[in-house]
Amino acid sequence: MKKIIIFCASVLLLISCKSKENSGSNNGEDNVLSKSEELKTIRGTVADKKGTKIAYAAVKLYLNDDDCMNAYTNDDGYFEFKLDELRIKDQSHFEVVYKGYSKTLLSLRNFVNDRSIILSKKGKVISTADYHVFYESIKSCAR
Which uninterrupted H or E stretch holds 131? Predict the structure, then answer.
């Protein structure tokens, strides 16, 4: 009789462990969701001084000396980056280039989400050739 009770208790223990293991797989899914939720979204627009949005501007986000990301503005001048916040450093900054405007550098610390980066025609204006070179060169950065 003792053996039967021990056997039944063992079976119950195994069943309860299996049910906890299955409920743990849902927690694994929750962990995947929480990891994706940890991504920071940085978004904004590129515009001129009059507020006209600039389509196809090349936006490079330098995270540090060895890490960068690229984006290109859409028809509405909108760009977006999704990245792990741990990649952002104090020296992280944007470099924005579009033909006919000066190269614009902006610290990520000074950038406000959903705001415009304003391009200027003061200073050295980017030629069409230089714009195309920059546009192609940032494709080597992560997306």
Answer: helix 128-137
- The residue range of the domain holding 27 is 1-37
The per-residue pLDDT for 14 is 59
Residue 80 and residue 112 in one domain: yes
Q: Which residue has the higher pLDDT, 57 or 36?
A: 57
One domain for residues 113 and 129: yes
Q: Count structural domains, the chain.
A: 2
Can you say whether the dihedral through the CA atoms of 126, 99, 114, 61 is positive or negative?
negative
CATH of the domain at 70: 2.60.40.1120
**How confident is the prediction for the chain on average, in pLDDT?**
83
Contacts of 38 (CB under 8 A, 6+ apart): 84, 85
- Four-point Cα dihedral 83, 87, 92, 95, nearest 10: -40
24 token code pair: 């743990």
Please report, in angstroms and rounded to a whole number, the separation of the first and last CA atoms in the chain: 67
How far apart (Å, rounded) are the C-alpha atoms in residues 104 and 96? Answer: 5
